[in-house]
Amino acid sequence: MNISPIFQNNNNQIIQQNVIKFINKQKDFLGGRTVSSTRAVGDAIQSILEESFSDICGSYIKEYTSHFNRRSMADLAFTDKSDFYHSVDIKTHRLDTVFNMPNLTSVERLSRYYEGDDNYFDLLLIAYSVKDLHINVEKVYFVPIEQLSWQCLTIGALGWGQIQIANSNNIILEKSPNRKKWMINLCDTLMDFYPQEINKIGDRVSYFKKVRKYWIGKKS
Question: For the chain, how many structural domains are there in total?
């Protein structure tokens, strides 16, 4: 499989630094109510990135759009200069929160999307702190999902299963990412996950059989 120029020669690291500089030089754009809501701050960061990410990436991008609904796997998308298509999911992490376990995407949706070798599902992970009304971005990762190690990922029980970051304070990257190997690891993880879910469902069925029996025997 050929590699997108975005992820060659440390180009994504240049983009990461550009994102940090871009956000940190913005005038304070949070209100008193917004700053107290982690979700509202995340939405505000996402909004300014959607407007400006094409300019941040510059000549790497040929075509760009940020018009997606909330159910889409992408917050923004672009075709790079080598015609690879990138769906980008923006995730923000406020560093003074104790725990953050974001959903990334459905295992079924990703498996279908990655049937196309020219498709990339990229994560733009923004770690920031807030003082008064000012945001300070301290760390950015701009990587394809297959660069995230399974040591820091887990599966959540929603639909076919949701790939999640187990803890946003602990991001582990693969030094030599390999999509084939990563997708096989995904399948192996699901082969362990699904039987556990079946056992859980069996326990729930047994429980509600007892609940039903109780209510049948209960006097009106």
Answer: 1
